[in-house]
Amino acid sequence: MMALALQWQLQLPLPLQARPPAVAAAHRRQRRLLFPVRRVPPLRARCCASAAEAADAGKAQAAARRAYPYDEIEQRWQRHWEEHRTFRTPDIGEGLDTSKPKCYILDMFPYPSGAGLHVGHPLGYTATDILSRFKRMKGFNVLHPMGWDAFGLPAEQYAIETGTHPKITTERNIDRFRTQLKSLGFSYDWDREISTTEPSYYKWTQWIFLQLLKRGLAYQAEVPVNWCPALGTVLANEEVVDGVSERGGYPVIRKPMRQWMLRITSYADRLLEDLNDLDWPESIKEMQRNWIGRSKGAELEFSAVDKEGHDLGAKLLVYTTRPDTIFGATYLVVAPEHVLLSSLTSEEQREHVEEYKELAARKSELERTDLQKEKTGVFSGSYAKNPATGEIIPIWVADYVLGSYGTGAIMAVPAHDSRDHEFAMQYELPIIKVVSPPNGNCDPTEAYADDGIMINSCNSSSGLDINGMLSKDAARKVIEWLESNGYGKKKVNYKLRDWLFARQRYWGEPFPVVYHDDTNEMVPLSENELPLTLPELDDFTPTGTGEPPLTKATDWVRTIDPLSKKPARRETSTMPQWAGSCWYYLRFMDPKNSNILVDKAKERYWGPVDIYVGGAEHSVLHLLYARFWHKVLYDMGLVSTKEPFKCPINQGLILGEIEYSAYRDNEGRLVSADSNSSLIDCYQEKVPADKVTKVGDHYVLKDGPNIRLNARAYKMSKSRGNVINPDDVVSEYGADSLRLYEMFMGPLRDSKTWSTGGIEGVHRFLGRTWRLIVGPPLPDGSYKDGTVTTEDEPTLDQLRVLHKCIARVTEEIHETRFNTAISAMMEFVNAAYKWETEPKSVIESFVLLLSPFAPHLAEELWFRLGRPQSLAYEQFPEAKSEYLEESKLVLPVQINGKTRGTILVDKSCSEDDAFQIAASDEKLSKYLAEKGIRKRIYVPGRILNVILDQQKART
């Protein structure tokens, strides 16, 4: 609410009559200069004007609309920073003072797309830039680099569509991104720029892979993958949406393929347990815990039998977190990709099972595990024997069980698992209740999934009796029984699966291995042969056979093993895009080193990353993969910390401007969005923003206030046509306005809706700041040199306003509450406009406060204040406590014990002074004038109570 109020203040400046006379007069002159009355020439005269005159007129009008000359200022200071390499961080041994504290601030590696930046991208970049500039001014050595995660599918798809080599596309996209980022004034150390596509970089990605291979953490296996025939590649789960590829919308199937895998599960316990020592947002840690998904339970065997109970010679291994419910297992479920399914399928059911497997292969894992979707399955034709009950139970195939989790088979307990219950109800399978709630109350139509007291859980033949036991005690007893009878064992399981680390693409890091022609033996390259570079290739189209595009580079594929001199062939799959982004934070510490991954002294000084900002979509996999690689490097003694990132921050999305739509029925009549009638048969049409007005908390048509509209903001995308190009915003309002607006929109971590009207407000604020310090424009629209500040000593009130602002801004930057820091600076400017003079010392401190947020404007003001050097390394102002204490307070005044008003008094105010102030107060004087006073009760700083003589009061 404060931010909104301040924005309103920007639109409605303080009335002139409320300002000191000298200031009011100055502002009247300023308004006449800024907003002169224009007489529009007749249409004929305007039509006859020359093109040059029209151009000049256009420039004059554009200048008049500008709140300050940001275009000149921003270009000047961007050139200055580049020419002087202002933000270069020297290396250890090259002038870096390692006695100073360090702060490593990093943005998540951006992918440089052909579309360039939209206004959502600079949100996180602006936040890290504010923090970087703040930390420099606080005396820290700051590492704030930028680079490019530039391998991957989009560049390859563009190459296929246009015939342009991905390298050309990637370099062009990087140039565009770099230009856009520089236009926003971000204080990156461009000397450290890296790209994952440079051989000097991916040499070390390949080197890390070899280390993983040596330690048995990289291996090959036949696994079910998301195969997209149209794209000709394997896709990660997050690249598949509703059964189609995220890019292009092509069908995706599940298909077994031999792939490179990384054994991240070997580090599952450490990845989980080390979260406890991290000062991360709890939400991110919880997402990681859920993805790792450690659970304790039992692994047990069910013997496969036919309908008559004859043993089929197969043992079906299942994993359960609830061994206590074994008596309630009324059927088994195997995943469609289970290795034993073919042998478990009867001839009568084979056609149905094969058809079901084909349908399941078209679904992503996310679709299959969606709790809301209807459960489907098919009977295998085989049965199993429940070892606890001796009962013969059917084996079903269902896609809600995944082959990649646990054993790919479960014992279904429909009375106590919601998915199993839904499936059992769908196919009329038995439901046996074996757990009773402690209070005995539960809904008989739903599964009871909590702990309780065991019932219906005894069998004399098997020798297992857990009736009457608590669930946890029963689970322990069942595990003991399983182990003693050879039916199973205690087991810890994970949802986390080994990392599928291969893609059937051209544009990626080549694997540094070869295969002998005669034996098919895989042999790693020696480290001195790195980097293994990609061959030049003109045809990037999929082969159609599942073979990667690199198979077309026959001269590259055919090779000789350097060690054995045997004929060999290279691996034709490439590494996934994740590979290069797992360790780039280390390379930024030592980007030019061609001998080792990272210098140990540099890593010890700069590591770990102190602040890591990026989108919430990377909170799980990217952070998990990077942590895994870091822990491997830690075990090798190459890094000095167990974790790579100290404090990750997820920024929210910036959504497109609100879109308005109206409903019309089949006859074309408008229907209000809150209508009681059904809107299902209505169609929607877009409504222009100028036809809309807001009433309360909803939007209506201006010409039809009874018609409520549907109002919604969407994620920016080219398909919706709601993308805002930052270049356009910078051109019209300046980079500082864009930076300031994105921080002022709301808390960094929240999603926000773009509003062009909002950026106009902060642009006006920067213009007011400019004119406050520089003064009004001259008649020709230019500004005089220097500032209007004076050498006067600041008053006590001015110092209090300044130091209150310093304290607020400092605290809010520390807490990444940038919107409220800006609000504090707006309050300062509002207060400063009321001053008779502007002491230079006060204004200098304010300019330093402003500089992390609006660096171009601040640099220009600093220069005009007579400071020839950049303010980038000036000391950030410190708030002094003596100016933060309020000298006055509000004192309640009571008459005969009843509060009648308040007065403003000094903290040290005496009783007599307080009484005199009350007596002269317009509201209180009527109670005290010519009245007899029996006594006064005064508690300094708390209250003044005047007891009147009632006798005299009546007369």
UniProtKB/TrEMBL annotation:
CDD domains (alphabetical): Anticodon_Ia_Leu_BEm, LeuRS_core
Q: What is its EC number?
A: 6.1.1.4
Domain Methionyl/Valyl/Leucyl/Isoleucyl-tRNA synthetase anticodon-binding positions = 799-908
Using the record's annotation, list all stretches that form the Methionyl/Leucyl tRNA synthetase domain: 109-240
Where do the Aminoacyl-tRNA synthetase class Ia domain residues begin and end? 712-743
Domain Leucyl-tRNA synthetase editing: residue ranges: 289-483
Which molecular function terms from Gene Ontology are attached? Answer: ATP binding; leucine-tRNA ligase activity
Keyword terms, alphabetized: Aminoacyl-tRNA synthetase, ATP-binding, Ligase, Nucleotide-binding, Protein biosynthesis
Q: Name one GO cellular component term.
A: mitochondrion
Q: Which domain of life is it from?
A: Eukaryota
Any single Pfam family the record assigns to this protein: tRNA-synt_1
Question: Which GO terms fall under biological process for this protein?
Answer: post-embryonic development; reproductive structure development; translation
Catalytic activity, per the record? tRNA(Leu) + L-leucine + ATP = L-leucyl-tRNA(Leu) + AMP + diphosphate
Q: What does the similarity note say?
A: Belongs to the class-I aminoacyl-tRNA synthetase family.
PANTHER family xref list: LEUCINE--TRNA LIGASE, MITOCHONDRIAL (PTHR43740:SF2), LEUCYL-TRNA SYNTHETASE (PTHR43740)
**Protein's name in the database:** leucine--tRNA ligase
What organism does this protein naturally occur in? Urochloa decumbens
